[in-house]
C-alpha cells in the first residue's frame, strides 16, 4: 500500500468515527510536558526505551518487551487504558493502566467536536541495565528453543490436533470443514484454483498447524523439501483437492519420496 493510500485510509477512518462521536488516531500522544508516551512509560516502569539499532543483529542481543496499547483520551487531557494486546515480554498491564490514568496528555490532536478519541500504538521497552537485558535475551532464546522442541513432537498444539502426514491432513480437514466447504473445494475446476483459499483456510493451516512456530507436520514437510509456510499450506490444499476427487497417484507419490 502506498503512503498516499495509507493517509487516505486514516482520513476516511477518522471521518467515519467522528460521525459517531469518537475518533481513531494511529499513534499515542505525548505527555503534556512534551515527553513522548513511550519515554514517560519507560521512566514510570524504571525501564528504558528499546533503541533503534544500526542492524537487526545488534537488536537481537537484548530482550525486547513490546505491547500494543490503545487509550481513550478526553479533551481535558485525561485518559483511560482501553485495551492492550500482543504483550511480548513482561510489561505489567496494571502499571500501564495506573500510568495512563495518572498523566495529563497533549490534546492538540483532538478536535473540539470530539469528546473522546481513541489513540493507539506500539511500545517497545527493555531492561534499564544492558547486561541484565542481555541475560534476559539469552534466557528467552533458551526458553524459545525448549518450547519449539516440544512443539515438534506434540500430538496437539493449543488444543488442535496436528496431523503427521498428508493423508492425516486430509482426514482432519474433512472433520474441520463443513460439507458445503468440502464440496466447494472438490468442485473447483482444477487443483491450481485452491490458491483462492490462501488467505482463508490456508492462513488457518499456517497459524494452527504450526507451519510458522514448529510442529510435527511442519517437520514432515521440511523433510519433503519445503521451507516456507505458504508453500506448505498450498501443497496440502492442492493434494486435498486431488484426494477429494479420488486422484491418488500424485499425493501418494509425494508421501513415498
Write the layout of secondary structure elements.
Layout: H1 3-19, E1 22-25, H2 37-44, E2 47-49, H3 56-59, E3 65-74, E4 79-88, H4 93-102, E5 116-127, H5 130-153, E6 156-157, E7 160-161, H6 166-176, H7 179-186, H8 201-208, H9 216-223, H10 229-244, H11 249-256
Parallel strand pairs: 1-5
Antiparallel strand pairs: 2-5, 3-4, 3-5, 6-7
Helix pairs in contact: 6-10, 8-10
The main sheet comes to:
5 strands, mixed
**Treating each run of at least 4 consecutive H or I residues as one helix, how many helices?**
11
| CATH topology title of the largest domain | Fusion Protein Consisting Of Minor Coat Protein, Glycine Rich Linker, Tola, And A His Tag, Chain: A, Domain 2
Helix content: 40-55%
Alpha-beta content class: alpha+beta
User: What is the total tally of β strands?
Assistant: 7
How many independent structural domains? 2
Question: Roughly how many Å apart are the termini?
Answer: 41 Å
Mean model confidence by pLDDT: 89
CATH architecture of the largest domain: 2-Layer Sandwich
SSE succession? HEHEHEEHEHEEHHHHHH
Task: Report the CATH C-level class of the largest domain.
Answer: Alpha Beta
Choose one word for the global shape: elongated
Low-confidence stretches: 1-21
Q: What is the alpha-carbon Rg in Å?
A: 24 Å
Strand residue content: 15-25%
Amino acid at each position: 500500500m502506498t503512503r498516499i493510500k495509507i493517509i487516505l485510509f486514516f482520513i476516511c477512518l477518522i471521518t467515519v468515527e467522528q460521525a459517531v462521536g469518537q475518533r481513531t488516531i494511529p499513534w499515542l500522544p505525548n505527555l503534556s510536558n512534551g515527553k513522548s508516551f513511550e519515554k514517560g512509560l519507560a521512566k514510570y516502569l524504571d525501564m528504558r526505551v528499546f533503541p533503534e539499532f544500526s542492524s537487526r543483529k545488534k537488536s537481537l542481543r537484548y530482550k525486547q518487551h513490546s505491547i500494543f496499547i490503545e487509550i481513550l483520551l478526553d479533551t481535558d487531557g485525561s485518559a483511560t487504558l482501553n485495551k492492550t494486546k500482543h504483550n511480548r515480554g513482561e510489561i505489567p498491564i496494571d502499571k500501564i493502566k495506573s500510568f495512563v490514568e495518572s498523566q495529563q496528555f497533549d490534546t492538540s490532536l483532538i478536535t473540539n467536536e470530539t469528546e473522546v478519541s481513541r489513540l493507539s500504538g506500539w511500545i517497545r521497552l527493555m531492561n534499564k541495565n544492558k547486561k541484565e537485558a542481555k541475560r534476559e535475551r539469552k534466557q528467552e532464546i533458551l526458553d524459545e528453543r525448549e518450547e519449539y522442541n516440544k512443539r515438534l513432537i506434540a500430538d496437539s498444539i493449543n488444543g488442535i490436533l496436528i496431523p503427521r502426514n498428508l493423508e492425516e491432513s486430509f482426514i482432519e480437514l474433512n472433520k474441520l470443514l463443513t460439507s458445503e466447504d468440502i464440496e466447494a473445494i472438490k468442485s473447483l475446476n482444477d487443483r491450481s484454483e485452491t490458491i483462492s483459499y490462501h488467505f482463508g483456510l490456508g492462513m488457518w493451516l499456517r497459524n494452527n498447524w504450526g507451519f510458522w512456530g514448529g510442529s510435527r507436520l511442519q517437520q514432515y514437510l521440511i523433510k519433503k523439501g519445503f521451507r516456507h509456510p505458504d508453500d506448505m499450506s498450498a501443497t496440502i490444499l492442492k493434494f486435498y483437492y486431488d484426494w477429494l476427487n479420488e486422484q491418488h497417484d500424485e499425493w501418494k507419490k509425494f508421501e513415498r519420496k
